[in-house]
Design a protein that fits this description.
Elements: E1 3-9, H1 21-28, E2 34-42, E3 56-62, H2 63-73, H3 75-79, H4 88-94, H5 98-122, E4 132-137, H6 142-153, E5 158-165, H7 183-189, E6 192-195, H8 198-207, E7 236-241, H9 250-258, E8 267-272, H10 278-288, E9 293-298, H11 302-311, E10 316-319, H12 328-335, E11 340-343, E12 358-361, H13 367-378, H14 382-399, H15 402-413
Parallel strand pairs: 1-2, 1-4, 2-3, 4-5, 5-6, 7-8, 7-10, 8-9, 10-11, 11-12
Length: about 425
């Protein structure tokens, strides 16, 4: 039997973003004769920045083209909800809120436009000639809606549709309207949904009990670049890695470090990631963190970040997010044997074991609390530090190794192994 995978991403392998797909694609591509990757929201002149396996052909859909069509198509579902999308739970969640109704209309329209554009691309390929075709959406969002539509429109003998689920596409509180459209419809029509954490799976199963059998956790993973340097030095070196936005709350980390100005600790902080808040963060550091070393690397390629971890000792990785799925940035840090201090949100507690490979913070922690944790870790003796590093590496190896996790996942979505 000949099998084909149709992978729907946002922008990968173009520009920057969705870096974690680079770890997964080479592994799952081995399971399929052909991979057709459609990046559904790229710029008008996208630049491919990441390689893909030899059996993968790449197509693009312009975000500007999508946007123009979505506006034109949103009026219909705003005025009248199509019958096939109606169910008691959807009606309850929609209520009479205008913002939610607008969001619903936008979501349906965008999903249809992405479906239409992707179908036009696939019509020029030989996808219908395969014995089985798997439509795989990386996000539990409009591309998941498209995966369902594409499955129903495919003429191959066996067709399947699956979606991952992460954070913003899973937890409604991440959205300003506290609502995500078409959850029951997508769960019913997809063959399975794979949250990247047990926390995410629990949420879906408890919220949509009658569809709980469609949900199963599938951890992401990162590559093994070996352990990072661990010899104790004069400096206590911290690292953080994220796009700077209100959810990530990097400002709280900066404020916590400022609390340590009289601690006598020799501190160094390196932050990877850009965003609109970067200049403000730099200014805060210039005004308040002059007693320590601060480096702001900005946006870097993933291979540059991995090289940094390979060649520089990092004593602690810090994540201060108010909401998460299960952070790949923490997986990467743990793979090098770096202990972690992070907020106990989403699935973070599934990789950061409090007191074992680091410490968890309450969601509403204060800078003072974080400062205390940093100082506590900095003052550990060598044996205690080594124990944390060993635990971090072991937890990653057992649960978040890319080669193991993605090989298992590929078999889950390949009908030849079901």
């Amino acid at each position: 039997m000949k099998n084909c995978l149709v992978l729907l991403t946002k922008i990968f392998p173009f520009d920057t973003g969705e870096e974690f797909i680079a770890n997964e694609l080479p592994v799952i591509a081995k399971e399929f004769e052909k991979v057709i990757l459609i990046a559904t929201s790229v710029s008008d002149n996208p630049v491919q920045t990441r390689p893909v396996p030899d059996n993968t052909e790449v197509h693009t859909i312009s975000a500007a083209r999508i946007g123009a069509k979505v506006k034109a198509g949103a009026l219909g579902p705003f005025l009248h909800i199509p019958k096939k999308y109606k169910n008691a739970q959807e009606r309850t969640e929609l209520g009479h809120a205008l913002l939610r109704r607008l969001y619903f209309a936008y979501f349906v329209s965008k999903g249809k436009v992405v479906s239409h554009e992707a179908a036009a691309i696939l019509s020029k390929t030989a996808v219908d000639g395969y014995d089985s075709v798997t439509f795989y959406s990386y996000w539990f969002y409009d591309t998941a809606f498209a995966a369902v539509n594409l499955k129903y429109g495919c003429r191959a003998a066996h067709c399947y549709s699956y979606s991952r689920a992460h954070g913003y596409d899973l937890y409604p509180e991440r959205n300003p309207s506290n609502y995500l459209p078409l959850r029951p419809y997508l769960l019913k029509n997809l063959d399975a949904v794979f949250p990247c954490s047990n926390n995410g799976s629990k949420y879906l199963k408890e919220t949509y009990k009658e569809l709980a059998d469609k949900v199963a956790t599938a951890y992401l993973g990162t590559r093994d670049y070996g352990r990072g340097p661990s010899d104790r030095g004069d400096e206590f070196c911290l690292a953080s890695c994220c796009h700077i936005d209100p959810v990530k709350r990097v400002d709280l980390l900066a404020q916590a470090l400022a609390k340590l100005s009289e601690s006598g600790l020799n501190l160094k902080w390196t932050h990877f990631g850009g965003g609109e808040g970067l200049d403000e963060l730099k200014k805060y550091a210039a005004d308040n963190l002059t007693f320590m070393k601060c480096e702001f690397a900005g946006e870097v390629k993933n291979e540059e970040l991995m090289k940094f971890y390979q060649t520089n000792r990092v004593d602690c990785f810090i994540n201060t997010s108010s909401s998460e799925g299960l952070p790949v940035s923490i997986m990467e840090a743990c793979s090098f044997g770096i202990p972690v201090i992070a907020t106990d949100v989403g699935g973070t507690g599934e990789i950061v074991k409090d007191g074992e490979n680091g410490w968890l913070l309450d969601t509403d922690f204060t800078p003072e609390t974080l400062a205390q944790k940093i100082e506590q870790m900095a003052r550990l003796d060598q044996q205690e530090r080594i124990a944390l590093r060993e635990a971090a590496r072991n937890i990653w190896q057992e649960n978040f190794c890319a080669e193991n996790n993605y090989a298992r996942f590929a078999q889950l979505i390949d009908p030849l192994h079901t």
